[in-house]
Amino acid sequence: MTYMLEAKGLGKRFGAVVAAADINIAIRAGERVSLIGSNGAGKTTFVNMITGYLKPDQGRITLDGQDITPLAPRTITRLGVARSFQIPQLYGDLTVLDNMLVANACFDQKLSFWQPARRPEAIERAETLLERFRLTEHRGRRVAELPGGVRKLLDIAMALTGEPKLLLLDEPTSGVSADEKFPMMATIMAALGQEAGTTVLFVEHDMDIVERHASRVVAFYAGRVIADDIPAIALATDDVRRYVTGELLQE
């Protein structure tokens, strides 16, 4: 079987710190996978290795059967991998729509002094995504004026302009109030549901959100995978309750 994404035997050290130890994960197209674990458990290291920002010391990563381990981040992006960041990477002095158009031009590799970003098809794609993420009312506002939750939605919408096959979300609800995070995540997943075939990996600390929106959970601890299953099973394992949710420590 060819998986959308497969990591085999990944290892990564930073001096004496083991950030990844024999990571083996295979993900099918269309899955919604949540990566969980305490700070420093290895989640972000795994995401950074997928996107090429870090190179593993051992092992390899394949995307649709193609080895992407040695490739540069930009090349991996062109193959269909996109990500959002815990701190949104936006252009504060530009409007919401212009941010979308810049992202589209970058994915199209047409950002230049000679190729206009405001092409009709680019504007149509941007407007469609803004509507899906409920951002249409903000289209003319400068990003610097937007609240944090809206910026996060825009960052994810921008990541989708290139129509990726794999989308990585780094803590999409962090820094958002408890009242906002559940409707915000519902908006994200509803919007992603309209992107046919897009596989989603999201790093998340709120287990209620994980249970609601993940079809599968991969739990990390000390650079190792300690659980990989549907939420009901993964979250109930002793290692996850001890090292991730802390439930066993409270009993």
Outline:
The chain is of the alpha/beta class.
Q: What distance separates the N and C termini? A: 42 Å
Largest sheet: 6 strands, mixed
Q: What share of residues are in beta strands?
A: 15-25%
Give the count of helical stretches: 10
* Beta-strand segment tally: 10
CATH superfamily of the largest domain: P-loop containing nucleotide triphosphate hydrolases
* Average pLDDT score: 89
Envelope shape: globular
What Rg is obtained from the alpha carbons, in whole angstroms? 18 Å
CATH topology of the largest domain: Rossmann fold
Helix content: 25-40%
Structural class: alpha/beta
Order of helices and strands: EEEHEEHEHHHEHEHEEHHH
What is the CATH architecture assignment of the largest domain? Answer: 3-Layer(aba) Sandwich
Number of domains: 2
Detail the poorly predicted runs: none
Question: So what's the CATH class of the largest domain?
Answer: Alpha Beta
How would you write the strand order of the largest sheet?
6-7-8-3-9-10
Q: What report would you give on this structure?
A:
The protein has 10 helices and 10 strands. It has 251 residues and is of the alpha/beta class. It has 2 domains: 1-80 and 164-251, 3-Layer(aba) Sandwich (Rossmann fold); 86-162, no CATH class. Strands 6-7-8-3-9-10 form a 6-stranded mixed sheet, sandwiched between helices. Strands 2-1-4-5 form a 4-stranded antiparallel sheet, with helices on one face. The longest helix is centred in the last third of the chain and has 15 residues, at 178-192. The N and C termini lie far apart (42 Å). The mean pLDDT is 89.
